[in-house]
Design brief:
single chain, about 350 residues, alpha/beta, six-stranded mixed β-sheet
Amino acid sequence: MRRSMKLAAVVLSGSLGMASLAACGAKSTDSTSSSASGDGSLKVGMAYDIGGRGDQSFNDSAARGLDKAKADLGASVTEAEAKSGEAEADKETRLKNLVDAGYKTIIAVGFVYQPAVNKVAKDNPNVKFAIIDSNDKDQPSNVTSLLFAEQEGSYLAGVAAANKSKAKHVGFIGGVQSELIKKFEAGYKAGVKSVDPNIVVETTYLTTPPDFTGFNSPDKGKEAAQGQLDKGADIIYTAAGSSGNGAIEAVANKQGALAIGVDSDQASQPALAKYKSSIMTSMVKNVDNAVFAYIDSVKKGNAFTGIKLFDLKADGVSLATTGGKIDDIQDKLKAAADAIKSGATTIPTAPVQ
């Protein structure tokens, strides 16, 4: 989820560049090929949210977009990891070090970077920044917001859950009780209630700001899911980054229960392979598409500016079909999706109590 697009790099020379990258935890993965123009100018750096590459969710989706830009566009790239419980100053330092190392296109993954991006972008007007999942009216003009209609994809997840629940009792787990994750909750609940207003929906948040560990605590996810299963839920949707891995594990241990993954197609993730039979679907947030599209726009000299929204129409969100568990309700899901795309159905972005 969360959580979530990255930056620019070519082989760095000089002690300043290497020292700066080391200081921010960057991992150089420079491409051996140059950009298509042959001048090696497409240098992209990515600053991950908590969990980083390998979270099987939000960050991994962003990483796929970066990898595609490296392979298809000849981008030279580097990556910088976040630390659980880090201070705001750490995020600023990470971005500043990328700038100092010569990166001119920087993608920050996650809304937690907004204050740091605002400050560093203001101080470096010639550097292009993109931030995933956040938009601030005060952000500098060299910052582009890459946003998603999470509520639309989550609505479809809710429709699927309501049609598949035998107990007529489902659950939602959010990593951090933030405005972003409330969009997932709102859409999911609306989708469930559109099918059957009498279905019970359990809601649990793992942490509240400024504690963002709810995105990187599988043990908390597992405990929350077990609590909802004990109350009778048989389908649980978790929007909580790598904490969702714990929720999926708990669901897999309950006979007859099913999980709904988030951000990536979690049933196809190698690290979750032993649980794939229990993953009904995933609300895929195509962060990889947005990352690649942004880098491609920079390469073409027409970089996205302002707000770029990736909604259902733009293939920004979708439901995964791996495992075939929602094949029998595709007609219902298509009807729901068509109503959203046409404007006949409007999805709330805040939970309706």
